[in-house]
Amino acid sequence: MAENTPEEKTEKSKDFIRNIIDTDLAAGKNEGRVETRFPPEPNGYLHIGHAKSICLNFGIAADYKGVCHLRFDDTNPEKEEQEYVDSIQQDVKWLGFDWGKHLYYASDYYDKCYEYALELINKGLAYVCDLSPDEVREHRGTPTAPGKNSPYRNRSVKENLELFEKMRSGEFPEGKCLLRAKIDMAHPNINMRDPALYRIKKVRHDRTGDKWCIYPMYDYAHPISDALENITHSICTLEFEDHRPLYDWVLDNISIKAHPRQVEFARLNMTYTVLSKRKLLQLVNDGNVSGWDDPRMPTISGLRRRGYTAEAIRNFCDRIGVDKTNSTIDVALLEYFIREDLNKKALRAMAVLRPLKVVIDNYPEGRVEEFDAENNPEDPAAGSRKVLFSRELYIEQEDFKEVPPKGYFRLSPGAEVRLKHAYYITCTGFKKDEKTGEINEVHCQYDPQSRGGGTPDNRKVKGTLHWVSAAHAVDADARLYERLFNSENPDNVPEGGDFKDNLNANSLELLKNCKLEKSLAEAKPGQPYQFLRNAYFCLDRDSSAGKLVFNRTVTLRDSWAKMENKSAKGKDR
Ligand code: ATP
Ligand code: MG
Q1: Distance CA 389, CA 391 (A)
Q2: Rounded to whole angstroms, how far apart are CA atoms 154 and 559?
Q3: Which residue's CA is the nearest one to ligand 1's atom 9?
Q4: Which of 37, 52, 180, 277 is catalytic?
Q5: Which of 185, 198, 200, 188 is nearest to 250 (CA)?
Q6: Any idea which of 272-286, 325-339, 441-455, 556-570 has the lowest mean pLDDT?
Q7: pLDDT per residue over 391-432, tens digit each?
Q8: DSSP per residue, 111-154
Q9: Does domain 351-466 have CATH number 3.10.150.10?
Q10: Domain with CATH 1.10.1160.10 in the chain
Q11: Which residues lie with the beta carbon below 6 Å from any ligand 1 atom?
Q12: Which residue among 203, 222, 252, 476 is least crowded, i.e. fewest CB within 10 A of its CB?
């Protein structure tokens, strides 16, 4: 990262969308109102890309003292489910936004859409077309060649009204015909070449039941929904830029009062991440992940379960801002904001993920001491807790080496280290498993005068280790997550390949029998923890009273280097 820390914006100027709104307000448009909407299709869970759109739409409403609606764009009855509707509401709320009474569904407007379709037919601006889907495609032309008029284009108003009524009453099978706008088959913009307004779908709708067997197309229902809700600025992603002329055409040709202004911005793309509901659904259905809220998923629910905070996600969205050109954000930037936030909020605790037994031979058997341990050096208000010390402890396997490499300041035969919050210990020996040759026990002597982490002679030690008293330890599983994809751009695959070819086979490592300090038996869901020298963790919902499960949210930056450094300077964390 350059000289600025990521949260410092180099310029404090407003983004181009807020500039547009300022211009509209200055011109006296919309009676000074600003009204936006977030319009998800309930066909999957929301992801971090949606968070960008949510922060933008709700953020603008807040900045201008307007409102932001939550509208379910439920025009595709086959793919939509109540589970998605519920999860979307939960996620928007969790991100910290409130739509108040403004919760809507595009299906609320089906009657209106139908009436406006009749109006278009009556004006000679829509017709029923019997071309097959293949023929429609053939007639459409290409970006460089104009299309051809449908032979059904000149049907009379009367005939169109009759046929549309038959479509509506279920007399035709699916695919038999479409209602199309009558615009211009030679239009340079393909979206304007008599686009479909309605198709037949003999599918029950979650909200309208069996009332309809024709459903409006997104490009038709969307401007109408926006206008009926009196939206002032309809903010969407760049792929809709070419649809804007159609958005305007629909509103210009029906007798509806409002005409919201569509503004497009670049969608969020992120390295090592797939942001498409279709692909995320595939990962869920194919069992590559445990579900939509698998902590490796870039979904809001996955990030939440992983321990990401809403505040960090909002700060990230704020920092990336909005732009007119597509680009890809480094996932490390998101991780930066998570660390920043967790550093402030996480309670510190000691947890040994890969335990190695340490016996302190000169410490009396049966004695137990309590040491005060600060809960968060960044937040004095977080207070302190007691950690228990006894003769047998666990340390991390990697904190002991029979033959220490150069610059290794942890435990090795003859070496002295500090145990965080407790005593100095010196290694006097170790035992190996006879069969495997693995070191399974380390023996030490402690210096009783070093209680609390210092000595009368002010002796320096370079290493500080975390530890857990064996007799008091709480067992837990730890799930260590890595990136779900190996490739910076998972969608970049050779001919015939698939984004799933880039899945990281090692994205989840499960550690069993981790040893945690006793206070973590009371760990609370939703509370972030920093396991000292390890990483940030949170309790997973799979935990039960008998079995704790922790998710690794994100590693500590340069954790080892930083610790060694600080210890070397005699400072402790
Ligand atoms: P996907 O491509 O993941 O399937 P979508 O665009 O089909 O997403 P919608 O439910 O239609 O999903 O999206 C709701 C809103 O969120 C839309 O306004 C859309 O433009 C916006 N949105 C979706 N993906 C992103 C993204 N990656 N970055 C920013 N905004 C996004
Ligand atoms: Mg969509």
Answers
A1: 7
A2: 72
A3: 40
A4: 277
A5: 198
A6: 556-570
A7: 999 999 999 999 999 999 999 999 999 999 999 999 999 999
A8: HHHHHHHHHHHHTT-EEEE---HHHHHHHH--SSS-----TTTT
A9: no
A10: 267-348+479-515+530-573
A11: 39-41, 49-50, 52-53, 236-237, 267-268, 275-278
A12: 252
Q: Which atom of ligand 1 is nearest to the CA of 39?
A: 14
Q: Is 402 in the active site? A: no
Residue among 37, 53, 91 whose CB has most ligand 1 atoms within 8 A, to mutate = 53
CA 284 / ligand 1 centre spacing (Å) = 19
Catalytic site residue 267?
A: yes
> For atom 18 of ligand 1, which residue has the closest CA?
236
Question: Could you tell me which CATH number the domain at 267-348+479-515+530-573 has?
Answer: 1.10.1160.10
Where does residue 452 rank: exposed (0-12), middle (13-18), buried (19+ CB within 10 A)?
A: exposed
Domain limits, CATH 2.40.240.10, in the chain: 351-466
CATH 3.40.50.620 maps onto the chain at: 30-265
Tell me the CATH class for 30-265: alpha beta
Q: What is the pLDDT of residues 92-135, one digit of tens each?
A: 999 999 999 999 999 999 999 999 999 999 999 999 999 999 99
Q: Give the closest residue (by CA) to ligand 1 atom 13.
A: 40
Quick count: other Cβ atoms within 10 Å of Cβ 438? 11
| pLDDT band of 6, cuts 50, 70, 90 | low
Confidence of residue 79 (pLDDT cuts 50, 70, 90): confident
Where do we find the tokens 């335990």?
Answer: 355
Q: How far is the CA of 38 from the centre of ligand 1 (A)?
A: 10
Whether the pLDDT of residue 8 is over 80: the answer is no
Neighbours of ion ligand 2 (CB under 5 A): 41
Taking only the tens place, the pLDDT of each residue in 347-397 is 999 999 999 999 999 999 999 999 999 999 999 999 999 999 999 999 999
Q: Which two tokens stand for residue 329?
A: 């954000």
Residue whose CA is closest, atom 1 of ligand 1? 276
**What is the pLDDT, as a whole number, of residue 569?**
46
User: How many angstroms does the Cα of residue 296 sit away from the middle of ligand 1?
Assistant: 20
